[in-house]
Design goal:
Elements lengths: L8 E5 L9 H12 L7 E6 L5 E7 L4 E7 L16 E4 L1 H8 L21
Length: 120
């Protein structure tokens, strides 16, 4: 999945996805629910209700690649945003955090300052 992470766009489909859905059902979700083109250089990530399994959909130019990853530990879960039905465009850092078991929303990743700098 790391090679495909070099896609132009990385989309995380928030909420729950039925992990029984196959390739063409996921393509249909991307097109009909999110108005996105699955035939572009984009990786689409889906997660099930228990947050232990994810699926990734990627167009390789001559066909779709459907990848699946299940966490082996019953205590391990992906930190998947569940608050809305949206397709979130992820940065490379956010994708890495997700794969490392962290939340894609890292409040301390970018330090915001209100300091004023005077240039002389």
């Amino acid at each position: 999945m790391l090679r495909e992470a070099n896609a132009e766009n990385l989309y995380l489909i928030t909420g729950y996805t039925d992990m029984r859905k196959g390739l063409m059902s996921l393509v249909e979700i991307v097109q009909s629910q999110y108005n996105l083109d699955p035939y572009t250089d984009s990786l689409f990530l889906f997660c099930g209700r228990n947050a232990r399994k994810l699926k990734a959909l990627y167009w390789e130019g001559d066909g779709f690649l459907l990848m699946s990853k299940s966490l082996s530990s019953k205590e391990s879960k992906y930190h998947w945003p569940r608050n809305a039905d949206e397709a979130r465009n992820l940065t490379r850092d956010q994708f890495t955090w997700l794969m490392q078991g962290l939340s894609v929303d890292q409040p301390k990743a970018i330090r915001k300052t209100n300091e004023r700098f005077d240039l002389y």
